[in-house]
Amino acid sequence: MRYRKILTAVMAAAMASVLVFSGCKGAPEESGKNQSGADGTQSQVSAESKGGETSQPEEGSKETSKITPTVWEVKDKNGNIIYMMGSIHAADKDAKILPDYFETAYANCDALAVECDVTKSSVSIMDTAKFVYTDGTTVKDHVGEDVYKKAVKTLTDAGFYNPVYDRCKPVLWSAVGEYAAIGRAGLSSAYGVDVNLINRAHSEKKELIEIESVRSQLDLLIGLPEDIQNVLMLNLTQENYVDDMAAVLTNMYDKWKKGTLTEKDVVTDDVDNEISLTDSQKKAVDEYSKLILTDRNKKMADAASSYLEKGKKVMVVVGAAHFYGDDGIIALLEKEGCTVRTLSHSDARVSEDASAEAVSSETESSEEASKNDDPGVPRAA
Fold first, then answer.
1. Counting Cβ atoms within 10 Å, is residue 134 exposed (0-12), middle (13-18) or buried (19+)?
2. Is the pLDDT reported for residue 189 higher than 50?
């Protein structure tokens, strides 16, 4: 069977924080930051996102967006409305300036809801220690020598292997492999859509809602059963893994920018290499998908429903993979009776035109009142 390449680092906003171990080479040049090592110093995501660039154009800027990602308007049976957009946690400079229809929707919202605020948390040595075997074993003892050697070769060829990883659990190896692919694709967490919007919300004093938390995401990854982690490590044994994953990420990002993402793009079975999986390994892949996607999709959809029920105007921005498929956020909200539509540039123009029309109407009314005003007749104060 074809092994589903689940994009761990793309799905969990906090995942890149796990890479405090890496001391990695080859990070995208755009970031301008170095990875921290096994000494527990601050991770790239925290370091870059603090004081980082925001997605809002500077006042007076004539720069316009080069992208048209999908933004949804969700309306419940009572007419309450929220907006949603899928985030890409690693992007490039094109993601800095978002389109006019997003800006219109965002301006209409009182709060921004995200998976977690990665800008306020750094990963400590206590956190990273949880990814280390404490029973004296190494990763080779758990995954086998053949898988270990092939995984080492993959990371070594990419310039990302560090002997300290030998004491770390497979989920860390998987994260490093995917981070290598992010760099190969020319993307960076510094330009992550959610990171920039979080920074913007902080600077504008806009209410920020965390649907999850950095802690809950890390605990989820740390707590993955060993059979699931071992299958994640198996992914690194595929030939050309980093190049193939970089191609998957590039395709996903390009389609996100155009607003043409599908379920197949975000969780894909369409890979070049084949790995024979046992029945138990297949079960582990399905369980991983349930933990990382299905269960969290339900939590995010429930959060969106609660905002609607309260009549709270919220822009919900979580990982793009959570919106698609029969168990995605969109489908779950539609099953609850919500009406979902995709915004376009016309929505921004409608808002602007309505504002202009209101001003024009007010001016006309004022002029008409002036014409009808007889200065010889006393007026009420």
1. exposed
2. yes
